[in-house]
Amino acid sequence: EDIRAAIMFRDANVNRSARWAANLKSWYGAGEACPQCADDPCGNHGYHGNWEGLECRGDWIIEDGWSRWSGQKSAKGPCKKITNFHLPDRGLEGPFPEHLKYFPNLHEIDLDNNAMIGELPEWLACMSNLIEIDLEDNDFTGTIPRTWGNLFQLEEVEVDDNPQLRGCIPQGLPANEHGGKVSFSTDPKIGTSWGGTRINGQRCADAPMPDCSHTKIPEDAPMPSKGTLPEEIELPPGHEDMTPEEAAEYFRQRLASNTVHSNHP
Question: What is the pTM for the complete model shown?
Answer without folding.
Answer: 0.82
